[in-house]
Design goal:
The complex is a heterodimer of chains A (about 120) and B (about 110).
Chain A (H helix, E strand, L loop, with lengths): L3 E4 L2 E4 L5 E7 L6 E7 L6 E7 L5 E2 L8 E7 L2 E6 L8 E8 L8 E3 L3 E5 L1
Parallel strand pairs in A: 2-11
Antiparallel strand pairs in A: 1-3, 3-8, 4-5, 4-9, 5-6, 7-8, 9-10, 9-11
Chain B lengths: L3 E4 L2 E5 L4 E7 L4 E9 L6 E7 L4 E4 L2 E6 L4 E6 L8 E9 L8 E2 L3 E6 L1
Parallel strand pairs in B: 2-11
Antiparallel strand pairs in B: 1-3, 3-8, 4-5, 4-9, 6-7, 7-8, 9-10, 9-11
The chains are: A mainly beta (about 120), B mainly beta (about 110).
């Protein structure tokens, strides 16, 4: 089946630095990918919709200048957390709809644990 | 936008018993309802899904029912096993241009006691 790969799986960064997380669709093209954030014992909250070749669409309350999203190709979307702070520590996970259009399964990446110290 | 409510937040059952998790949604335009199982620190795994043109779907010990009129859907797990212990999320997806956008419930922590 379709595979979505996310990297890195775990990252620790110092407060004030930036960190980039990659989301790749390995065997299919994804014009749209989604970025979620999940705090411990909470649900997945959609942060933004990543659109290939155009600007991302951010959910209300998500700072677009802090969470930079780039979807430069049909198989890669990146999320950059800029000027990270300890409160940004969370599990970040991406998803994409599998090939074939609206009827197909949504696939998740493995997720990335971000710890800001 | 869509609002998905999920109950209960925690559920404990004895091995072999059944478990039922219920969700409601707010937007009648939603037409796809997946259920995910998530173990700590891992990606959500799709366990079953249902579309709005179907009322019930079953896959071995897992079944999902959908009532479009009432806007609610439920997950049923029979003959539960300790390895079923995890967090379960329901979700809804709407028709429209943004294909693949999921609205999640808050999750249910299921614990199956041996």
């Amino acid at each position: 089946g379709a595979v979505v790969s996310q990297h890195p799986s775990r990252v620790i960064c110092k407060s004030g630095t930036s960190v980039k997380i990659e989301c790749r669709s390995l065997d299919f093209q994804a014009t749209t990918m989604f970025w979620y954030r999940q705090f411990p014992k909470q649900s997945l909250m959609l942060m933004a919709t990543s659109n290939e070749g155009s600007k991302a669409t951010y959910e209300q309350g998500v700072e677009k200048d802090k969470f930079l999203i780039n979807h430069a190709s049909l198989t890669l979307s990146t999320l950059t957390v800029t000027s990270a702070h300890p409160e940004d520590s969370s599990f970040y996970i991406c998803s994409a709809r599998g090939p074939g259009g609206a009827g197909n399964t949504i696939y998740f990446g493995e997720g990335s644990w971000l710890t800001v110290v | 936008g869509e609002n998905v409510e999920q109950h209960p937040s925690t559920l404990s059952v004895q091995e072999g018993d059944s478990a039922v998790i219920k969700c409601t949604y707010s937007d009648s335009a939603s037409n796809y309802f997946p259920w995910y199982k998530q173990e700590l620190g891992k990606r959500p795994q799709l366990i079953i899904d249902i579309r709005s043109n179907v009322g019930e779907k079953k896959d071995q010990r897992i079944a999902v029912t959908l009532n479009k009129t009432a806007k609610h859907f439920s997950l049923h797990i029979t003959e539960t096993q300790p390895e079923d212990s995890a967090v379960y999320f329901c979700a809804a997806s709407m028709k429209g241009s943004t294909l693949g956008r999921l609205y999640f419930g808050r999750g249910t922590q299921l614990t199956v006691w041996p």
